[in-house]
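Help! Submission page says 'invalid entity' but I think these are all valid:
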Amino acid sequence: MSHPRGVRLLLTAYVYLMLLFLFLPIIVTIVFSFNLDRFSSLPWRGFTLTWYERLFSNTDMLDSLKNSLVVGLAVGAASVVLGFSGAYGLRNWNARRKNLFMLAMISPLAVPWMLLGLGILVFLNNIGLQRSLLAVSIGHTVFAAPLAMMIIDARLATLPRSLEEAAWDLGANRIRAVWDVVVPQALPGVAAAFLLTFTLSFDEFIIAWFLSGFDVTLPVRIWGMMRSGVNPTLNAIGAIVFVISISLTALSQVILRRKEVPAK
Amino acid sequence: MAKRLAPNTKGGRPVKTGQFLRGSAGLWLAPIAGWQLLFYLAPVAYVFLSGFWTMKDFRLTPSWTLANYRQILSEPMYYRAYVTSLGLSLGTVALTIALAYPLAYCLAFIVPRKHRPVLLVALIAPFWTNYLVRAYSWQTILANSGVLNYVLMALGIVKAPVEILFTHRATTIGLVHYLLAIMTLNLYTTLENIEPRLLEASQDLGANRLQTFFRVTLPLSSGGLVTGSMFIFVLAFADFVSPAVLGGQMQRVFPQLVVDAVQWTVNWPVASAFAVIMVATILLIAGLLGRKLNVTGGAVK
């Protein structure tokens, strides 16, 4: 259906206006991370790297960054193992049963995460596990593992069965065939799943807030800083997190798009 | 050798590979299913149960009571927080639809196909900063001495700074910014799937553009509209970052009560009762929206 020129122009202008709205906070964050003014307001006071220097000399901040990395790696690893096993198990189920199982597993994504955080806090406390980075990792894996399963399942769906069957015929047992044949083929999916779950865990705040104890993750530390007033160091953190997340997401896309693993 | 081949044969007869696989599917599914059972289903069940329990000496004790719910229902402050949250999130849903619809429409029908992938990626790019930092950035923009007021005053549009930060307006802006992409993508997918011949037919039958939009395009996109609204309501209703950072602390929202009950009073049963009320509200709204979908969906056929 064609639209008159006027409508076209107006709507196209609107799209760019909305993009500006969406990008405004990032632009402001990056720009003000280099602004000398300690109240982050205009007019421009001059260029500085002070906020980055402060950030990198803040040991609390660096500790929480390290904690977030540890949690992210643990969540990524656990999710990939659980996700691969699940996706492999789903291979021979029919579409209806498979979708039902997927839906049940993925449902934590539709629940308010505050509920997950609170529930896991109460539950872990009852079985004698205190708030800790381990508790945060467990909580994050609840939403990350099913996502990993979906990504790996999509990858497995593109692979022919014949190679695995050939491995059985050649005498490989189940585990051996999976490890030597299916895992290498699924590797791009596994890597993408790892990167995505790592990124999500790295960024997650509310579950981490409920479950972290003395050691906190980066978002929980950021929350603490925000509570204590204006601080341009936050802009520097925002800019760095943006660059890291955008690189990891781009990397996972590149890995996923690669059609086939080159044969050895 | 023969032993290794064993899984593929049964009583000397070869078994179909499909059967062989299906038999062990449960084994491979067990780890993730077990994980979700233990760390998702059990905790959620705990929340529902512990809403009826009590806290004794900072320990959760399963002695059954309705006191938590009675306390919540009899406290006007909680009631006000509930109404505030409901208003905020429904307003956010409405505003997000109003902003997202033209955007999705343009992406689906006006932007040339080859430009679309770039624009869709640009749409989700803002999600790659930490949500807390984004809220903080809105503080920088919306403050009385912030970027927006500086620009407005420099252009001579206003004389004195417009007060936005620490009001519900700022909360709504933060929420809409956070949720706009979700709604747009939902709408875009449904609009993209509309059969172009239906729109042509409508025009051939003499409808003008507006009539075609309201009689054909809009009803056909109701699916995306409803699922998008559900997502947005859940996320807006349960969010406490935007209200806390942008709305100030004057008027509390419902999710903040959960946080307060955990952080300050360490009263998990009350926190659980709040959370249950939250989930009940979400299910109710989702149910209403879902029925709406059935009604309009039926009307289209």
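Support: the input was valid. A stray whitespace character was the problem, and the output above is from the cleaned input. Chain A touches chain B through 89 residues (CB under 8 Å).
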